[in-house]
Every structure is written in structure tokens, then in C-alpha cells.
Amino acid sequence: MNGTPRSSVDFHSMSNNSSETLASEYLPQSARRGSQTPMHARQKSQTPPTNHQNSPEVLMIGYAQIVGSFTLDGSLVNQAPFEEVKRKGVLGGQGGGGVVGVERSKRESGLFGALGWGSIGESLGGLLGGGEPSSIREMRNQANTKTIPLLSTPQSILFVDLRLAPGESRAYTYCFTLPRGLPPSHKGRAMKVSYHLTIGTQRPGPMTEQQQVRHVDVPFRVFGGVNSQGEIMGHDLMAPYIILQDQARTCSVDASSTVSGAGSMQVAEKSKVNDSSLEDFLSYVDNLLDTPRQNSSSGLLSPSEAGPRRPSRIVEPSSMKESIDFAILRSNISSGSNQSSNRFEISRSGRRVAVIMLARPAYRLGETISAVIDFADADIPCYFAHVSLETSEKIDPAIALRSSASIYRATRKIHAAYSANALFARRLAFSPSIPHAATPEFVTSGVSLEWKLRVEFVTPRLGAEYAEDGPPGHGLLEEIAKDDRGTVLLAVERLLCESFEVAVPVRVYGAVAGGSESVEGEELSV
């Protein structure tokens, strides 16, 4: 899809048939006729009739649309405020107006009725949104569902009255720009966000089971959006995007262009980029040649001479990928309060324990976080350290049903963990990796996702008897025997200690490490 932040490479169909294609939704006519043959009838030749093989496949209409929705856990989030959101739009664009409880009467007038094609007119009317009016049962079913609309687009027509000969195929393109600020695809405990592309077809004829609209849902992955400054954009869950006007672009693809597949698309994109860069270079050279040179009679200009300068301007990033790249480059710049964004000094009761240093505080999906714990010049020794890269969902207190601590324990997810013995260690290094399939950080009005490096330190108990200026390892060994030959020391069986933990914030953007924004297509037979 053109204009979207990114799309996933994992597709699957949600059809109930084993072959999982739209063609499998329709039973062949020969199979329906064969079921009426008596058992005592004489068997015919196994060669099927030629008229059945050569009969074309006729599809009255085909459409495509994008639907986004989310669900909430009723044990963690109060769902009562979202009942009004469910009434704002019906998923799939099947909502209709009219009088509640009034059944629709079939139309026999008009152009389709005069030609005897009333069923086709009714099918087109129902497909384009002029279907049955609302009823109390539909409103109850909509209120009882757990799915809450997030994005709903109208059904974009791909074709009308399509006739395919045996072995013939047709390809169509569907392009739609997703609204900015949508939350990414997420499978968490408190909230689950999903997006899918619905592709439907319908055969002509009377409204029987074989002529009903058949559709498949193709899920795709959405990454969170950022603004030009690299800040993560938020979304109001109480205001879904219910788009009534068709803004998608659809067109038919020639058979010759579909042979090369995604490879030709990549070549076309590369050639387009090369052409644009060549044009920019030529225009730059023309501007240099057209600019009059000051005091041209004096020959070459001196390098030390201060020439005229044009006012500089800040060029805005042309894509979200560039915005994320610039945000990561600027992440190590200290703020005005002289607080470092990648260096954290850890203290206990005013005494220094360690210093946590990150290579940078912002990363992409799939990258490795490089971090170091420095114990040099520590006032309190550290016996053990445990580091975990985790995510947790944060729920707005206005709709939360539990305390923040209970919600953290329920929604916590550990992606990587590292443990090490810190006795006599001056520093510890660890490098957890961010999974590609993880959800990037996002912010909504109700539920948000945060990434953190949680570090647990095991230190001596405050108030215990240990000498700060004593030899290394003091208090870890006890004397067993001593004579003129020497002293025997053994490790103590019990050690008075305590533990505490700190959470270091880490920002994870919705961009795959090493990825590009070139258009890459994957074929999926529907």
C-alpha cells in the first residue's frame, strides 16, 4: 500500500475452506449437478464435457477495503466509555440508516427491474452501502461485540462484470494512504490492535447461497508513525477514523507487467530515484553556471575571501524513515538541564552504587542495545546484577480497573534477560537484542506501551557491619582456623544483603533495522 508507514510480509487467509482462496468459496457447477445423479444410473465417461471446461468464470463485482480495530481486556480496562465508539461506525462498512425494525422491500422498478435484473441491483445496492436499514438486533449485536472500530474505509470497486476464460487471470492494484497517528499492530494483554485488507467477490444470479458475497481477510502489520521531529504521534481511541468517501486508488494491471512481479517494481523504483537524483544534479550545475561571478576580471577567487552566502534553510525529512534516522542521531544530545540521555548514576541512600551507560537511548526494531554498568569509585559494593529488556502497558487511571502495580505485573513482557556476578567486577557489559516481531513504543488516550531496561542490584544491607575502606572482599570470608602456619578462611554461609531495581527508559521506533521503504510486493492467491 502506497503511503503507509510499512507493511508486514506475513499474510494468511481467514477463509473456512481448506484451499483458502476465493475460488474455493464457490462450488463448481459440475459438483452440484453430480449430487443429483441416481445411484443406479449408468456411469459416464470420465472425460468431462467440453462445454463445462470451456465455460468462462463470471464475477459480477469485486471490492477491497481496509479495516482496523482493537479489543480491550475487561479485567484491566473499563469498556463502558467505548460503547459510544462502537455506535460511530460499523466494521466493514455494512452500517445503514433508516427506520429501526423496518424490513426492506425488494425493488422491481428502475433500470434493473425493467430488465429483469432486480437481484443484481439489490446486490450492488447492498454492496455499496445502501443495504438493509438498521434494526434493534443489529444494534444489539454491535453493542455486544468486543471489537472496537479504529479505522474503516468504504468498499472500493475493483471490477464489475468480470469474465475469465479457463486459465486466464487478472491483477488489480489497491493503494490507500493510512491516516497519521494510528497505533501499530499490537498483541498485548490490555489491548490488541489488528489491521486487515478485505477482498470480496460476488457472482451474478439470484440471491442464493452461491451468489452471496464471499470475502477473505488479509492481515497486515502497521508500524507507529512519527512527526518531522521524530516524536511518536498519539491517537485518541474515542475518535476512530470512519472514512465515508472512497479515497483509495484502484486500477487494473496488464498481464505483461505482472510477469516480472516484485522485481520489476523494485527496478522501477530504483530507476525513478536515479532519474530524480540526476535531474537535481543537473539543475544544481545550471544554477552555478547562471550565477554571475563577482569581479570576474581578477581571475580565480581566493579561498580565504568571504564570498556571498545564501541563507540556509532546514529541509524537512521526506519520509518517516528519515525522521526516525534524524531522531536517533539527535538522541545523544543533552537537554538544556545538562542531563545526559544515555548516562544514569545509580545511588542508594545518597551513596553511589554504579553508573549505567547506553550507546544511545533510541533504537529500531531488530537492533542490539549496547550498555555497560560501571562499578568504579562505588561507595557501596554490588554482589549481583540482573538486567532485563521488557515492555509493559500503561493504562489511563480514568479507565483502569486495577492499580498501576497490578497492571504492570499483568502486562509485563520480558524480551531478553542477562545475569552476572558482580563481585570484584569493575564493569559489566550486556547487549540485549530487540525482536523484529515486537511492538514499537506507542501512545494512545487509553493504553500506551513503554520499553525499559530494568536493572536489579544486590548490595549489602544498609546498617550492616562492613568496612568501606577495608580490603576487597571484606565480610565475604570468615576465619575457620589460625596458627603459626597461617589462617584458614571460608566463604560465609549467610550474607546480609538487600536488592533494589531501577528502570532505564529506552525508546524503540517502528522501523526495522537495515530495512528500506522501497515498494516490495509479495504474491498471495485469493
From TrEMBL:
UniProt-annotated stretches for the region Disordered: 1-55, 293-316
Biased composition (Polar residues): 13-22, 32-55
Entry-linked Pfam families: Rgp1 (PF08737)
UniProt xrefs under PANTHER family: REDUCED GROWTH PHENOTYPE 1 RGP1, YEAST -RELATED (PTHR12507)
Stated name of the protein: Rgp1-domain-containing protein
Provenance organism: Cryomyces minteri
